[in-house]
TrEMBL record:
GO terms for molecular function: rRNA binding; structural constituent of ribosome. This is Large ribosomal subunit protein bL21. Keywords: Ribonucleoprotein, Ribosomal protein, RNA-binding, rRNA-binding. InterPro entries: bL21-like, bL21-like_sf, Ribosomal_bL21. Pfam families: Ribosomal_L21p. It comes from the Bacteria. GO terms for biological process: translation. Belongs to the bacterial ribosomal protein bL21 family. SUPFAM superfamilies: L21p-like. This protein binds to 23S rRNA in the presence of protein L20.
Amino acid sequence: MVYAIVRAGGRQEKVSVGDLVTLDRVPAEAGSTIELPAVMLVDGDKVTTGAEELAKVKVEAEVLEDVRGKKVVIHKYKNKTGYQKRQGHRSELTRVKITSVG
């Protein structure tokens, strides 16, 4: 089985061909192809981690859609002072499909 560990949006994701992965927002149109930098490549028993060999590795993904994450509600409260603060946040995400590893 061939899979790669790629750097995507400040995190690392384990991907193989055909996987659907949700990343932080990528500035690309739906239907376009992006290339993700590989950190490690595993091809059966062979593991590639050297920077020179990884420079040759291409992990390509097709952008499917832009989505938004679940809403996170932040509520701050201090007892006996009347202080309350509410804040919300939704992450901007992109869903991609891995098309080639290698």
